[in-house]
């Protein structure tokens, strides 16, 4: 038999090479390549005498095939999951350090345990005393959660095998787990993959809802191999700015539901509080209108959320290169809007520094926000506030036209419900029926005339 070829796997990005190198050819990280055990290849004889068993086929409409979901006790968590935990499924929970993953999962664990279901929480990062202190702070000391500090997957699975399978199992985190059947230190690609495989197999065989906490690298990906994302049923990301109090739970992949619903939480002294109605959350409570500020009616899943977009323009005296800084929006899109404002509307931003911020630590990717961003920029440039209690929506094309957006009517109705009186957007938006004063703007230049021309 030919000697199996050696393979080397980058511990940062998971790419495979057949030669050891100091620097990974894919992600350019240094000293991340380590030797990986060669994959075993079986040669199969295709008959039942080889020890294979016949698989059973079932019909798609077999009754009882639909899994019943288990609520987590946190409605916002259930919403992001698409309606609760599915038994026998694996969830990967990613997020920056300190964002609140352990807190969220301990809260869910406590609530599920109080409902009388078996819950096991295994921490590989904190001692049991630390987790108990956190539970006390969350008011969950009395919840019958089985807590352990362990990192050996064999020990964990042996222990679980001796007891009745829990309905909820948390492994915090997969990067700290270690399997003695696999070579390498905890956190390496082969360890992470092997440990996840064994834990997921246990969960599927015993109808356990399993959550694996995953670390996030500095560029925002879940550390370890991408294959981890393929192995699990649901990938969730817990986001937010650590210095802000709001946290957003989002499903990036969900085999059992839609991925457009978010869960909104706020981090308080006693853990995460649910925010059932987030629509006003990200607005500053200011009364007077201010130059450079525009409100955008966003949609997250089925829920409208009003966001404040703030722009600041600083004129430069010298010929220094002006800075453009964006928080919460795409910098490429800002550059495009500035170019449209310069070439189609005759405004001059070239010798000015431009700063753009979506208030509240929110990250926005909806192109319907173009008009609100443009309105904030024009208002900042002219140093004139936009009309009081107004919302802005519309996509801006390179020709400077304002285009229709999805759910225009819903966005406007929600804004009207929250006391906004004026709406500006594309000419052909359904929702002019909303109880606010709606003005259609065909071209971005019309907006410039309105703001700068109404001296
Ligand atoms: P944690 O759940 O440990 O984050 P992760 O597991 O994602 O790394 O959350 C840690 C942060 O949450 C910590 O900086 C303090 C804050 N926190 C509160 O503000 N209130 C609380 O009740 C708790 C438990 C944590
Ligand atoms: Mg943690």
Runs with pLDDT <50, length 5+? Answer: none
Spatial arrangement of strands, main beta sheet: 6-5-7-8-4-9-10-11-12
Broad shape? globular
Rounded Rg: 27 Å
Give the count of helical stretches.
Answer: 10
- Residue share in β-strands: 15-25%
Overall pLDDT score: 86
Number of strands: 21
Amino- and carboxy-terminal Cα gap: 86 Å
> Structural class of the secondary elements?
alpha/beta
Listed once per kind, the bound small molecules are:
thymidine-5'-diphosphate, magnesium ion
Main β-sheet: number of strands, strand sense, barrel status? 9 strands, mixed
Helix content range: 10-25%
Short description:
Helices cover 24% and strands 24% of the residues.
Can you describe this structure?
Helices cover 24% and strands 24% of the residues. It is α/β, with parallel strands linked by helices and 455 residues long. The strands form five sheets. Strands 6-5-7-8-4-9-10-11-12 form a nine-stranded mixed sheet. The chain has a four-stranded mixed sheet with strand order 13-14-16-15. The radius of gyration is 27 Å and the shape is globular. It starts with 6 loop residues before the first strand and ends with a helix. The model has no long low-confidence stretch (mean pLDDT 86). The structure holds thymidine-5'-diphosphate (TYD) and magnesium ion. The site of magnesium ion (MG) has 4 residues, from helix 2.
